[in-house]
Amino acid sequence: MIVVDRIATMQALMRQYRREGKTIGFVPTMGYLHDGHAALIDRAREENDIVVLSIFVNPLQFGPNEDFARYPRDFERDRRIAGQHGVDVLFHPEVDEMYPAPLSVQAVVKARTDVLCGRSRPGHFDGVATVLIKLFNIVMPDRAYFGMKDAQQVAVVAGLIRDFNFPIELVPVPTVRETDGLAKSSRNVYLSPQERKEAPALYEALKAAAAAVDRGERNAEAIRRLVREHIEAHTHAEIDYVEVCSYPDLTPLSALAGTVLIAVAVRFAGARLIDNIMVELPAADRRGE
Ligand code: PAF
User: Fold this and answer.
1) What is the mean pLDDT of the segment spanning 197-217?
2) pLDDT score for 283
3) Which residues take part in binding (R)-pantoate (predicted)?
């Protein structure tokens, strides 16, 4: 595995791979790798000649009162995991390498940001889009792999790739969970033992919502209420949002139809967690809206 921290070195290496006709799969991360990242790497490994993993905690996507400084970091552990999963190139730039001077041009995400994390974290997706434009131009991948735990990010990145004509196939990968259902997240390490015990209630609530839909519930407000009540009854977390929206355009729904995303975000004292579940309904049901 080659470890690179300079942009120019990375671009020269990537051009060389492209000249050799090799396909490049890219897994962008902020490090502190877990099984969710490993699933992205494994999928990229299956589908490409070269696998590139980036580890960069991107300051632009954190708000002033968010956890940029305390975001977990352990490069040696990450390097080991990357090697074990067959990463060919690990790109690990410093902040000064990525942002040597204040940016003169920055991305603004105009659609799908007035809901979910976009609403509670203003500017977050502008920061994500900006760093991804840079990373896509540095890595020049054929495919880029993103976890569905952040379904809104996947939808935003699909828009970015389409609007800016990046010749990149976006590959969404299902959420990886602990045995008790908690979605794997780098931030889980910050949960207290009590919070860790309570956290699986998020996915239980989402599964209960999906079961209600299976039984015929089509009222989005009833689904929001069900999820909210389950989380309130089983955790001490503060609910940031419970939302039911169409996917991938992320329009909040009153009646369920088509591909529907049921998403939650909560704040425990130790960490803010997100999770979601997708349900498929006949689009024809929209006639009832
Ligand atoms: O999902 C993440 O870890 C980050 O948002 C990403 C895509 C690496 C951009 O910094």
Assistant:
1) 98
2) 85
3) 61, 153
Centre of ligand 1 to C-alpha 12, Å, is: 23
Which CATH fold topology does 186-278 show? Pantoate--beta-alanine Ligase; Chain: A,domain 2 (3.30.1300)
Residues having CB closer than 6 A to ligand 1 are: 28-30, 58, 61, 128, 131-132, 150, 153
What is the edge-to-edge ordering of all strands in the sheet holding 272-280? 238-246, 259-267, 272-280
Query: 247 and 259 in contact (C-beta within 8 Å)?
Result: yes
Active site members: 37
Distance CA 68, CA 63 (A): 8
pLDDT bucket at 287, cuts 50 / 70 / 90: very low
Out of 34, 132, 168, mutate this one to test ligand 1's pocket (max ligand atoms within 8 Å of CB): namely 132
Task: Domain 2-173: give its CATH architecture.
Answer: 3-Layer(aba) Sandwich (3.40)
Phi-psi region of 181 (alpha: psi -120 to 50; beta: other; left: phi over 0): left
